[in-house]
């Protein structure tokens, strides 16, 4: 049996929230920023499965066991004039790396983007992350001329007036 046939991708369900939160914690550990995780099961449940979902989650299973996830949401490009698909996080548990799990998750995102007529797929990768080679293998290119900015925490609160 090939590695690809061992991998199944499915839409996450509300019952998967505890698993998603565990893997979010694993991803934060991998990215060396576990202190930045403030999500709780309640927050994840509401943001992914509430009345106005902010994003969607896909789960990868390898031989029926949870192997990884991807969280994605719709963004928009004024230049393309179409919505896009933004991959917030793509994570594969260490024991499943090299088995086609990441490729299956990434390909499913591309399939969704094509089916939904999205103009492009975008994501950010930490500079030191070896996944950069993985993405470049598919023809992705780093947007070196763009710098990602973030406004959060106290800075966001002070601009928001509270």
Strand content: 15-25%
Q: Any idea what the shape is?
A: globular
Question: N- to C-terminal separation?
Answer: 57 Å
Average pLDDT, rounded to a whole number, is 93
Q: How many strands, which pairing sense, and closed or not: the largest β-sheet?
A: 5 strands, mixed
Helix content: 25-40%
CATH C-level label: Alpha Beta
Q: What's the number of helices?
A: 6
Unreliable sequence segments? none
**Per CATH, what is the topology?**
Aminopeptidase
Report the radius of gyration as a whole number of Å.
Answer: 16 Å
Order of helices and strands: HEHHEEEHEHH
> In what order do the strands lie side by side in the largest sheet?
1-2-3-4-5
* CATH superfamily descriptor: Gcn5-related N-acetyltransferase (GNAT)
SSE-based structural type: alpha+beta
CATH architecture: 3-Layer(aba) Sandwich
| Total beta strands | 5
Supply the number of structural domains.
Answer: 1
Brief characterization of the structure:
This protein has helices at 3-6, 17-30, 41-49, 101-115, 131-137, 153-159; strands at residues 7-11, 56-62, 65-77, 82-92, 121-123. It has one domain: 3-Layer(aba) Sandwich (Aminopeptidase). The protein has 162 residues and is an alpha+beta fold.
